[in-house]
Amino acid sequence: MGRRGSTALPLMKPLSDCRLYAFVDTAYLQERTPEFIAQQLCDGGADLIQLRAKKSSVDEVRRMAEAIVPITRAANVGLVINDHLDVAREVGAEICHLGQEDFFDAGHQRVEELKTKNSKLQIGLSTHAPEQAQRAIDAGADYVAIGPIYATGTKPTAKPVTLDYVRWAAQNVKVPWFAIGGIHLQNLDEVLAAGARRICVVSAILNEKDVAGACAKFRKRLEAARNL
Ligand code: TZP
Ligand code: MG
């Protein structure tokens, strides 16, 4: 039996090797199913895929996650569940992503509090300023998201943090960190020049008809920047 067939060992790359973090965001599904998008993102070379379903009930999120898990597993891509820790645990996702309010405002102090015994679940936290990044790292976050760099329709009320925060992260953050928010192929070079080596991309991939092709373009650009 191959490695893939032998129980639920996480076979995703270590977070430090993950560079392209893509999304199944239900706001951008159009006529497409979550599974179709997930498969396209895997085919396009995403290292991580987040299920982000802001308007869905927990049951709907669970159903979507259950449909996506076999796809990400088969591709050895890490599945991240946004907001729903219980769903992440139930479906055996590799990672749960939480915002500042989901974690700190809910009274948590250490990410270990969210990890059940023997669980390999990793926790990623959103951050919007250096103090938040420091607090997330001190809390034991497995990765931090740094953003939104630019204004974005995916999170329209969030204030852009600008490339200054990316430059700060490049100097100061030692855990894996991902630049996020308004990143597209035309501004990718300046995000990389500011020091980012890992990026999250939602709309610039999902707005394309050829999702796998769009994803592959980001992948190629990140590969080309590997030795920057
Ligand atoms: N968190 C900070 S910005 C953002 C999230 C979820 C949205 C990123 O989406 P896009 O479409 O890549 O700007
Ligand atoms: Mg949240």
Describe what you observe in this structure.
- This protein is an alpha/beta fold and 228 residues long.
- 36% of the residues lie in helices and 16% in strands.
- The chain has an eight-stranded parallel sheet with strand order 7-6-5-4-3-2-1-8.
- The radius of gyration is 16 Å and the shape is globular.
- The relative contact order is 0.15.
- The N terminus is likely disordered.
- Magnesium ion binds next to loops.
Poorly predicted tracts of residues = 1-6
Would you list the SSEs in sequence order as H and E?
Answer: EHEHEHEHEHEHEHEHH
Question: DSSP helix count?
Answer: 9
Overall geometry comes to globular
Strand fraction: 15-25%
Structural class: alpha/beta
Instruction: Describe the largest sheet.
Output: 8 strands, parallel
Number of strands: 8
Percent in helix: 25-40%
- List each distinct ligand once: 4-methyl-5-hydroxyethylthiazole phosphate, magnesium ion
User: If strands are numbered along the chain, what order do they take across the biggest sheet?
Assistant: 7-6-5-4-3-2-1-8
Radius of gyration: 16 Å
Query: How widely separated are the two ends?
Result: 40 Å
User: Kindly state the mean pLDDT as a whole number?
Assistant: 94
